[in-house]
Design brief:
Layout (H helix, E strand, L loop, with lengths): L1 E6 L2 E4 L4 E9 L6 E7 L6 E7 L5 E3 L7 E6 L4 E6 L8 E8 L15 E2 L3 E6 L1
Parallel strand pairs: 2-11
Antiparallel strand pairs: 1-3, 3-8, 4-5, 4-9, 5-6, 7-8, 9-10, 9-11
Length: 126
C-alpha cells in the first residue's frame, strides 16, 4: 500500500507563489511516476505536471510551463510543485498522485495513477 500526504495550499494574490509538497510512504518502491492534478469548481480534474523518481523526466500542461516546476527529493520521498506567477485560473484543489508505471505520455491521464492524496486547496485572488 502507498500513502500520499499533500500539503502547502493556501490563499495567495495573483502573481504570488506557493510550494506544494507530497510525502510518499508505504510501498514506495512500486511507484515511479508522481503527478500533480487539479480540480476547479464545476470542472473536471486535469493534469498539471508529472515526474519520474528514477530518471527525473518531467511533463507539464501547456498553461503552467515556465511558471510551475515539479521536483523530487528522493531521500525525503517528497515531490514538490513550485508555483510562481499564479493566476486566478490556477485556483483549484490540487492532488498528488502516484503511478505504478514508468514515465510516458500516459502520465498525463489520471487513469494511469493508482494512489491519490487527499488534496490541498489553492486559491488565487485577483
Amino acid at each position: 500500500q502507498v500513502q500520499l500526504s499533500d500539503s502547502g495550499g493556501g490563499l495567495v494574490q495573483a502573481g504570488g507563489s506557493l510550494r506544494l509538497s507530497c510525502v510518499v510512504s508505504g510501498r514506495t518502491s512500486i511507484t515511479d511516476v508522481m503527478g500533480w492534478f487539479r480540480q476547479a469548481p464545476g470542472k473536471e480534474r486535469e493534469f498539471v505536471a508529472a515526474i519520474s523518481w528514477s530518471g527525473g523526466g518531467t511533463y507539464y500542461r501547456d498553461s503552467v510551463k515556465g511558471r510551475f516546476t515539479i521536483s523530487r527529493e528522493i531521500p525525503k520521498k517528497t515531490v514538490y510543485l513550485q508555483m510562481n506567477s499564479l493566476k486566478s485560473d490556477d485556483t483549484a484543489v490540487y492532488y498528488c498522485a502516484a503511478a505504478n508505471a514508468r514515465l510516458t505520455y500516459r502520465a498525463l491521464s489520471e487513469d494511469t495513477y493508482d494512489h491519490w492524496g487527499q488534496g490541498t486547496q489553492v486559491t488565487v485572488s485577483s
